[in-house]
């Protein structure tokens, strides 16, 4: 048992056989090195409740401060605190929403602004080609936790969809004060058709020297005044322009060839097209369309959506007729 002492106003815990007693350090020189270096002598240790502590361990919380230079910023750290290199935490131990966005994050936000809804696999093909799908999901989850994007998954069997979130909207509007961004709350009703158009967008961005790409929902914003609205139009660095029609077999083939393709055959005023690309989701539909468009005189190339997803637009996956050999787009 340590004898009861009281000098210099510093209290430590002394454990006896039947009760807890408080004693005072004789002098700072006799104090343990840890207390001398780290514990301010103006702060008293808290009193402990009485009781029988014989043969037991007693723990007292002590706050330590070690003076040293600030830690260097780590460029690969996905989170950045607003006032230092450490990750900010709220009182409930949740991560703060302060994030340091990388250039890839900014590109994801800009693409979601234009594409409106993208699936996990589409974002993986566009931004995480050299990484695993799990790495892509982790990064998307962090952006969602920060409010920059919003994840929507109708059911556990469906692939997750992502749209721009409120923080992402504010971030883009701060970068471009003239931008007015409207956030979608619900996915489009014709989701498969919508995603097929965005598959074409991603393939064009990844594989072509792309100058512009506008989906049908973006054409009113560029003052499109042609008599027909394609599913998408895009141009490449060589000055050639293409129109895209994504056909899922919901229209009669004769109607398709006598209405839409006739407009393309006559040409669009002030907007010359190199080719019209017809994309289907089934081989049987591709062959039926190839037979029907042969007599229209329209400059048409056909392919399947899965070929675009697997091989991109630079592979010889396009056909001019049902019996033709695959050709390249450019």
Short structural summary:
The protein is α+β, with helices and mostly antiparallel strands and 330 residues long.
Could you name the key traits of this structure?
single chain; 330 residues; alpha+beta; Arc Repressor Mutant, subunit A; Trna Endonuclease, Chain: A, domain 1; 3 domains; 5-stranded mixed beta sheet; 3-stranded antiparallel beta sheet; 10 strands; disordered N terminus
Structural description of this entry:
This protein is of the alpha+beta class and 330 residues long. The protein folds into three domains: 1-68, no CATH class; 99-187, Winged helix-like DNA-binding domain superfamily/Winged helix DNA-binding domain (Arc Repressor Mutant, subunit A); 191-330, 3-Layer(aba) Sandwich (Trna Endonuclease, Chain: A, domain 1), CATH 3.40.1350. The chain has nine helices and ten strands. The strands form three sheets. Strands 6-7-8-9-10 form a five-stranded mixed beta sheet, with helices on both faces. Strands 3-5-4 form a three-stranded antiparallel beta sheet. Helix 8 (283-293) links the parallel strand 9 (275-280) and strand 10.
Which sequence of SSEs, written as H and E, runs from N to C? EEHHEHHEEHHEEEHEHEH
Which structural category do the helix and sheet elements fall into?
A: alpha+beta
At CATH level 2, the architecture of the largest domain is 3-Layer(aba) Sandwich
CATH class of the largest domain: Alpha Beta
Number of helices: 9
Q: Label the overall shape.
A: elongated
